[in-house]
UniProtKB/TrEMBL annotation:
Record bears the keyword Hydrolase: yes
Entry's Gene Ontology molecular function annotations: metallopeptidase activity
Keyword Cell cycle among UniProt keywords: no
Annotated TM spans: 51-71, 92-112, 124-147, 191-211
Keywords: Hydrolase, Membrane, Metalloprotease, Protease, Transmembrane, Transmembrane helix
PANTHER family reported for this sequence: ZINC METALLOPROTEASE MJ0611-RELATED (PTHR35864), ZINC METALLOPROTEASE YWHC-RELATED (PTHR35864:SF1)
The protein's name: Metalloprotease
Taxonomic source organism: Haloarcula saliterrae
Signal peptide stretch: none
Length: 212
């Protein structure tokens, strides 16, 4: 069974990617929110700044989410599952509304799969998402270290910092063993493997939240 994406799935991924980028931009650019509120005017915030933040958001939180979900699908298909991403449009709307008032809780959708499967295979499908975010964090780490050492500011510095931070947060959050999160499925398969990945991931996520 090859890896295929239906038109609906491509649409759901694209809408979720864009919605998360917009939500994260609203969360970061509070002057933009103020301008949207009651038709207020922008002060020192330029359209270029908003566009830059949107692009950074799409390339960090958007791509981190997108590849996280695609990784679930790739492994599920590898195990003979029928798998597809389905966006949760209600939660995407909630993410944008939440960003407007100053917080972001993103549960934009999930890969659903069906077919006969073992607990190990289910655990590996779940593990693929957080591991992908860890690998993306490694990709962003080198440019982050370079811009930090050089004291660089601007678009590239924001991209490197946000890319590292967001992917560490996505990995750590998804390793929590609760509700529909990946950590619960991984722990149901193997507590040892869950702990080996979850403990450093969660610690790194806490560090990313408070230190980056």
């Amino acid at each position: 069974m090859g890896l295929q994406f239906s038109q609906r799935e491509v649409r759901d991924l694209a809408v979720a990617w864009l919605a998360l980028g917009i939500a994260f931009t609203l969360l970061l650019e509070r002057q933009l929110v103020a301008a949207l509120d009651m038709g207020g005017a922008l002060t020192s915030l330029s359209p270029g700044t908003v566009l830059s933040t949107l692009v950074v958001s799409l390339l960090t939180v958007g791509v981190g989410f997108l590849l996280h979900e695609v990784a679930h699908k790739v492994v599920a298909v590898r195990f003979g599952q029928v798998a597809a991403f389905r966006a949760d449009y209600r939660m995407l709307g909630f993410a944008i509304v939440g960003a407007l008032v100053g917080f972001l809780f993103a549960a934009p959708g999930a890969v659903v799969h069906r077919g006969r499967i073992t607990p190990k295979e289910n655990g590996l499908i779940a593990l693929a998402g957080p591991v992908t975010n860890i690998l993306l964090a490694v990709v962003f780490l080198l440019p982050y270290l370079v811009v930090e050492a050089a004291g660089t500011t601007g678009f590239l510095a924001d991209l490197a910092t946000r890319g590292l931070q967001i992917n560490l947060l996505l990995a750590g959050f998804n390793m929590l063993p609760f509700g529909p999160l990946d950590g619960r499925k991984i722990r149901a398969w193997s507590t040892l493997i869950w702990a080996a990945v979850a403990v450093p991931s969660i610690l790194l996520a806490v560090g990313a939240l408070f230190l980056l």
